[in-house]
């Protein structure tokens, strides 16, 4: 919706809008949304455009995707993710690798991963004591790291990777957040934080390389993601992925698949902490659907309200709040001529809060996703997983994990916000709560035959 009063901060010489975008990114993209479907800005000395209209965004991500490369945000990720799926340039190489990696995300595989997710979530829930104060964002990040680590490497060989992931990843993710919007020159300075980042990155790569070597020597199919990546063959050429490529794909999954899902879970628990009415509905659904039984893959599809909570969280708090592309040739977008090399910014955050599309857009209302209401939401206006050939390959995995973890926690605990804490929204590489201290309150006796020790035995996790 257009406003006559809203205006972007002035572009500075040399830096353009980069400083305002770094200082208050969410205000910046929200103001830009009110200025029209495609808004010129300046990033440093170069021209860039913020695209706000769902149809134009779809044109960039889907219709004209061949004319765009991934853009400035991904240049920052390349030193860590190498040639993994997130950063590999669009085109033949991406298409080939995506086909090979896809087999690890087939529906039949997700069914197996779901049981690992459930067991690890049960073990996490069993590790908490009644009345305990927890840094819930960190608890969830640890859980999602264990989940991706365990689905990648199901065998004991993978234990070392899981432990290294728990040790190195917070430093790697923290470094990525710091680097995401800043100038690249800062990343190369010999500061203590850059050194810690480089060391953690190297340790992670070394461990993954070593375990890939061990897997190769054993030459068995362990039914996990790494086995799938090793067995995958191109249907036309019969070629597989090299060890270096498999290493890059593994690091990519560890980065792309852990913090993102942990953030969705953090934000949904944050909202539930403020909305006991929704929490009660969640508990009622979990009890009706699961009763005394263990959560099964089949029961996930019946947790409809739980899923709506996740949808609404993805709308209001998309972990990837900003996405980028760069034109590779001259294109016309929304009547504007863009030369090759123009940066495009897309913000799912501001688009998914557009009052022209979503009624009462800042209200957390899971029922907008009811089957009879969902048709009001145009498909291109909901893009937490992006769209087109570069759409998230882990989307099905992430939905399953979010629903399984949320339902499992809800079976055992109420999580209450710590009074007096002001939670702010931090927009860096991802959209994160500034902190999330919560206090556990045990629900009525543990439902089902699922006991803490059984879950622990299954996962090897310690309380
Ligand atoms: C709620 C959780 C998640 C969110 C919000 C999310 C979001 C995204 C987004 C927005 C993209 C596309 C970026 C673009 O258009 O350029 C993407 C790509 C990707 N994601 Fe996710 N993701 C999530 C979970 C996962 C998980 C669990 C995995 C793996 C285990 C994963 C692996 C990937 C990979 C490999 C790509 C690159 C796909 C390609 O370019 O072919 N993501 N994700």
In brief, what are we looking at here?
With 463 residues, the chain is an alpha+beta fold.
CATH superfamily of one domain: Cytochrome P450
Poorly predicted regions are 445-463
Distance between the termini: 51 Å
Structural class: alpha+beta
What compounds are bound to the protein? Answer: protoporphyrin IX containing FE
Helix fraction bin? 40-55%
Mean of pLDDT: 89
CATH class of one domain: Mainly Alpha
Number of strands: 12
Beta-sheet strand percentage?
5-15%
How is the main sheet built? 5 strands, mixed
Overall morphology = globular
Number of alpha- plus pi-helical segments: 19
What is the radius of gyration computed over CA atoms, rounded to a whole number of angstroms? 22 Å
Q: What CATH architecture label of one domain applies?
A: Orthogonal Bundle
CATH topology descriptor of one domain:
Cytochrome p450
Strand order of the largest sheet: 1-2-8-5-3
Write the layout of secondary structure elements.
Elements: H1 18-23, H2 25-33, E1 38-43, E2 46-51, H3 54-63, E3 68-69, H4 72-81, H5 92-102, H6 107-126, E4 133-135, H7 136-152, H8 159-180, H9 192-218, H10 225-231, H11 243-256, H12 259-274, H13 276-290, H14 297-300, H15 304-316, E5 323-327, E6 331-333, E7 336-338, E8 343-346, H16 348-351, H17 371-374, H18 395-412, E9 413-417, E10 425-427, E11 431-433, E12 437-442, H19 452-459
Parallel strand pairs: 2-8
Antiparallel strand pairs: 1-2, 3-5, 4-12, 5-8, 6-7, 9-12, 10-11
Helix pairs in contact: 6-7, 6-18, 6-19, 7-8, 7-12, 8-9, 9-11, 12-15, 12-18, 13-18
This protein binds protoporphyrin IX containing FE.
Protoporphyrin IX containing FE (HEM) binds next to α11, α12 and α18.
């Amino acid at each position: 919706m257009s406003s006559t009063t809203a205006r972007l901060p002035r572009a500075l010489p040399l830096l353009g809008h980069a400083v305002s975008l770094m200082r208050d990114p969410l205000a910046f993209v929200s103001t830009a949304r009110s200025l029209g479907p495609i808004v010129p800005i300046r990033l440093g000395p170069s021209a860039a455009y913020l695209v706000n209209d769902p149809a134009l965004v779809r044109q960039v991500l889907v219709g004209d995707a061949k004319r765009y490369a991934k853009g400035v945000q991904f240049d920052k990720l390349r030193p860590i993710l190498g040639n993994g799926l997130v950063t590999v340039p669009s085109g033949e190489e991406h298409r080939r690798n995506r086909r090979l990696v896809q087999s690890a995300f087939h529906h039949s595989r997700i069914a197996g991963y779901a049981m690992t997710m459930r067991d690890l979530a049960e073990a996490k829930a069993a590790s908490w004591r009644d009345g305990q104060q927890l840094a819930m964002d960190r608890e969830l990040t640890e859980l999602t790291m264990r989940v991706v680590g365990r689905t990648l490497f199901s065998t004991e060989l993978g234990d070392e990777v899981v432990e290294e992931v728990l040790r190195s990843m917070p430093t790697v993710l923290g470094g990525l957040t710091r680097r995401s919007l800043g100038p690249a020159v800062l990343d190369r300075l010999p500061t203590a934080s850059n050194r810690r980042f480089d060391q953690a990155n190297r340790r992670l790569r070394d461990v993954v390389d070593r375990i890939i070597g061990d897997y190769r020597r054993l030459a068995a199919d362990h039914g996990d993601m790494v086995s799938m990546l090793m067995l995958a063959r191109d249907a036309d050429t019969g070629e597989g992925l090299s060890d270096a490529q498999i290493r890059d794909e593994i690091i990519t999954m560890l980065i792309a698949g852990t913090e993102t899902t942990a953030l969705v879970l953090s934000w949904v628990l944050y909202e539930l902490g403020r909305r006991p009415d929704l929490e009660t509905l969640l508990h009622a659904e979990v009890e009706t659907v699961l009763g005394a039984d263990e959560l099964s893959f089949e029961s996930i599809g019946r947790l409809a309200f739980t899923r709506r909570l996740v949808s609404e969280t993805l709308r209001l708090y998309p972990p990837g709040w900003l996405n980028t592309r760069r034109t590779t040739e001259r294109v016309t977008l929304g009547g504007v001529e863009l030369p090759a090399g123009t940066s495009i910014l897309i913000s799912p955050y501001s688009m998914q809060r557009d009052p022209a599309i979503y009624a009462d857009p800042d209200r957390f209302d899971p029922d907008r996703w009811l089957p009879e209401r969902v048709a009001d939401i145009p498909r291109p206006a909901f893009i937490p997983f992006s769209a087109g050939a570069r759409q998230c390959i882990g989307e099905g995995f992430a939905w399953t994990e979010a629903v399984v973890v949320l339902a499992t926690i809800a079976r055992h605990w109420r999580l209450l916000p710590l009074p007096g804490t002001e939670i702010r929204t931090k927009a860096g590489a991802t959209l994160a709560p500034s902190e999330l201290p919560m206090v556990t309150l045990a629900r009525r006796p543990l439902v089902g035959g699922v006991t803490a020790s059984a879950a622990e035995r299954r996962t090897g996790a310690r309380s």
